[in-house]
Fold aromatic-amino-acid transaminase.
Amino acid sequence: MTIGESKDFSHLYSDETKARKPSPLKTCIHLFQDPNIIFLGGGLPMSDYFPWDRVQADSPLPPFNKGIGAPVSGEADDTLRLALRKNEITKAGETQDIPLSRALQYGFSQGQPELLSFVREHTAMIHPMQYSDWDVLASVGNTNSWESTLRIFCNRGDTILAEAYSFSSSIYAAEAQGINVFPVPLDEFGIIPEKLEKILDNWNPEAAKPKLLYTIPTGQNPTGSTLSDDRKAEIYRIAQKHDFIIIEDEPYYFLQMDPYVKDPAKRAEKTVSSHEDFIKSLAKSFISLDTEGRVLRLDSFSKVLAPGVRLGWIVGSKKILTDYLRLHEMTIQCPSGFTQSLVAGTLNRWGQDGYLDWLIGLRHEYNEKRNVTMDALYKYLPQVPFIKVSPPSAGMFFTINIDASAHPEFATKYQSKPELVEQAIYDKVIEHGVLIVPGVWFKANGDTQPPQPAESKVDVAPNEIFFRGTYAAVPLDKLQAGLKRVGEALYDEFAVTR
Ligand code: PMP
Ligand code: PLP
């Protein structure tokens, strides 16, 4: 089957993007690499003066038989020793590294070719693409990609849509640019398409329509929900109908797990071991449904390698990525050269298969952490109808959902205000020596001027509050001890008898 080209979405661009001229110096930078050109055109320092001649790194070797967290011995049977040189001399058959003289120089704002080719191949394996002119662009992680996205598309006073509870830093990044973040209701399966469609069908025609939907489909932060594949198709249809761009911010995509089974005796040992099974087990992405170039996918190594590598990539149509590149040329330029060369050197040696082994290893680790968390929550939390937990199927977060009106002092001490109960519980859990964070910190509640109809803003469960916790940050024994303390705090606060 032949696939078509992406559409032009420049009518949705910000004034800033429309006004941005490409830097003329960047139009000739590629000639710096041309051996036939004596390049006197740019302020590039000579690599002889870069004070690193060789950078060495040890990392584990696929297939990571001892588990992905096992320390490396330094011996050849479990350790990959990578040595990057300033001037790489590669022999035939050896892995092509990014020489430090190039990685640490200006140029290649789109990312170094050795990194991009790995990421492109990986993307094509995981997300079968439905249009021909797609590409990837290196970023400094999804925080940076989202900030760039807002600037590419939005003007002050514009409105975007987001899950009613969303990653606070993403909401605040938008609000700081004068952009309204209009909430879309979600449940444990993510955004509810019918509600989204209703909001847009009833959109106040005096206000400009939203240009973007910002969504965290997998292991949503903060609710831990995962958007079902069926809903994604519906939401894509609504995006076409109402002409907005979908931004999928997917740092947790590879933290997808087996469904939680309450009875430990019935849990399967390893449900996913082959690469084929693994790829098949993954949620369908928005980018893989996209036939028009209407989706931008923000991917990051933060949660699968390390946050401090500050490296990610954006997948989208070449047309739109060109405008991101022009913005990057004036902001980040490109991710750090050390990062790109170390990560590309490691991944190109692991190979696509080795990287899948790593991701499968990660899945097993998170499965275990999620299981321990859920077991502990069922064991330690008061088993009462007004406190609910739902086992996440992806990501790092679990939530404890509470009907605040069940608090014995709801109407008296707390004046029937759920947010006051939320604050009291927050204080109480800290008193018990553990930290989980209130859902209200993640609430999107922007509106347009003039406002949207009241029924578009109805809260489905106004007395429900929730707390977000993570099982990612501490070892299992500490995790269990922490959840026990949460349980004790809730027994106390709600005066539940044990
Ligand atoms: N400002 C000025 C005046 C410059 O000449 C340059 C580099 N040519 C830059 C900023 C870019 O600096 P950096 O590499 O630190 O982003
Ligand atoms: N987006 C979401 C939804 C997140 O939860 C996080 C991490 O906390 C980020 C982005 C940040 O990602 P990065 O480290 O790639 O900037």
In short: The pocket of 4'-deoxy-4'-aminopyridoxal-5'-phosphate (ligand 1) is lined by residues 43, 333 (CB under 6 Å).
